[in-house]
Design a protein that fits this description.
With about 425 residues, the protein is α+β, with helices and mostly antiparallel strands. It contains eleven helices and 25 strands.
């Protein structure tokens, strides 16, 4: 299942929302990502919005003003919900109809312009989790990340034998997923330094971020019914940025034999805007080309269409701002820049494998890619890789040294897509600051 270029992707479209026409905006009229918001300092019911420039299009207000009346009733009702789950669970056809209608409402040549009351400034809004997330699964889909981490612990055999055959994942903790700008408390746990004979319970001293891409399940599947890889993308609503915070010292002691637990479950931050697969159509690309000698995916994970268009050309960046940098007015510092094109497993393969045993996925479930790292220096998606587990510290513009994150540090993830002949679109930011304990 692949989406096609249509009138909503036209690079010549302009919006009557002026800042949506700026060349470097994340939210031009060609994007139209969905999120959930309420007005700052209010207790009002959350509402669904669409990002456009520096504004949010209020879909509930659009419904009240009969601006969505030409759409099917189920779509109109879903637009008044307090989260995206109903929209996520719809078939592609009504979702596309909504995208076309929103594009029409926001185009500069729409006359008369809709009333300004359907917009709210982002600066006046609190951005919330976009969906009620029932389940969260985190994959390990970057072979470069897996190899880099493996070399730190198993220099002679960095990749385990199953890696090139099966999309590896663990079931995460949905209850501790938080929206961007939520402060993160440093976790405590059992830690066993190499020189000690027994573990101790203490705050983590090796707190890390992980740069990931998340994708929300749209249509679900019934228990016992796998999803064919050629239909997998019909079950994906859209993408966001994910920071899977990780306490590396807790993780090192607890992960054997059953994998991540308390080192991961204390917090996961996601960006507030969900960029739909429809919006990402111009930026599709071939799946990662496996090196000669690597095994080909098993039949249920193999598809000609997925090989030809299973990748997405997303540039991903990590920025850091220490408390001292903030006090001195120093801009955030770029830690890494990589590409989502270099993932060993595609979104379709991850979702297909997840459901291959009959596991039922539900609208609003979140799946994440695992740390996105590339082959090039400067494309690593976490400090564990960048600092080689602390053996090669980095120096910030203030002269501060970092092996892992310090209290007061703010980590900022950014992502955007660019392709010749099309407008750049972005994901907004995924921010989190470590509390001063």
């Amino acid at each position: 299942m692949t989406y096609t270029i249509n009138a909503t992707h036209n690079p010549n479209l302009r919006s009557w929302v002026e800042l949506a026409n700026q060349p470097n905006t994340d939210f031009p009229i060609q994007n139209l990502p969905f999120g959930v918001f309420r007005r700052q300092d209010s207790l009002e019911t959350p509402r669904i919005g669409v990002a456009i420039g520096d504004k949010i299009l209020d879909l509930a207000r659009c419904y009240q003003l009969s601006l969505l009346s030409e759409l099917p009733e189920q779509v109109q009702i879903a637009c008044t919900a307090p989260n995206l789950n109903l929209l996520m669970g719809m078939e592609i056809t009504p979702r596309l109809a909504l995208r076309h209608r929103l594009s029409q409402l926001l185009q500069a040549d729409t006359q008369p312009h809709p009333p300004a009351e359907i917009l709210i400034s982002m600066s006046n809004a609190e951005l919330l989790l976009p969906a009620s997330i029932g389940d969260y699964t985190d994959f390990y889909a970057s072979i470069f990340h897996a190899s880099n981490v493996g070399k730190l612990f198993r220099p002679d055999n960095p990749l385990l034998p199953n890696y090139k055959y099966v999309p590896i994942a663990y079931h995460g903790r949905a209850s501790s997923i938080v929206p961007s700008d939520t402060a993160i408390k440093r976790p405590s746990g059992q830690i066993k330094p190499p020189a000690d004979s027994v573990p101790k319970f203490a705050p983590s001293q090796m707190l890390d971020y992980e740069l990931e891409v998340g994708f929300f399940v749209g249509l679900g599947n019934q228990p016992g019914e796998p999803i064919h890889i050629d239909q997998a993308e019909a079950h994906i609503f859209g993408l966001c940025l994910v920071n899977d915070w990780s306490a590396r010292d807790i993780q090192a002691w607890e992960y054997q034999p059953l994998g991540p637990f308390l080192a991961k479950s204390f917090a996961t931050t996601i960006s507030p805007w969900v960029v739909t697969l429809e919006a990402l159509t111009p930026f599709r690309c071939p799946a990662f080309s496996r090196p000669e000698g690597d095994p080909q995916p098993l039949t249920y994970l193999s598809s000609p269409s997925d090989r030809s268009l299973g990748g997405i050309n997303i540039t991903l960046e990590v920025w850091i701002s220490s408390a001292q940098m903030q006090q001195q007015g120093i801009q955030p510092w770029l830690l890494s820049r990589g590409s989502f094109q270099q993932m060993y497993w595609t979104l379709a393969q991850m979702l297909t494998h997840h459901a291959s045993n009959g596991c039922n996925l539900r609208p609003g479930d979140l799946l994440a890619s695992g740390t996105v790292s590339g082959a090039e220096v400067g494309s690593q998606g976490c400090l564990l890789e960048i600092t080689q587990r602390g053996s090669q510290p980095i120096t910030l513009p203030t002269g501060e040294i970092r092996k892992f994150l310090a209290d007061g540090d703010e980590v900022i993830l950014r992502g955007y897509c660019e392709s010749a002949g099309y407008n750049r679109i972005g994901f907004g930011e995924c921010r989190g600051r470590i509390l001063n304990c």
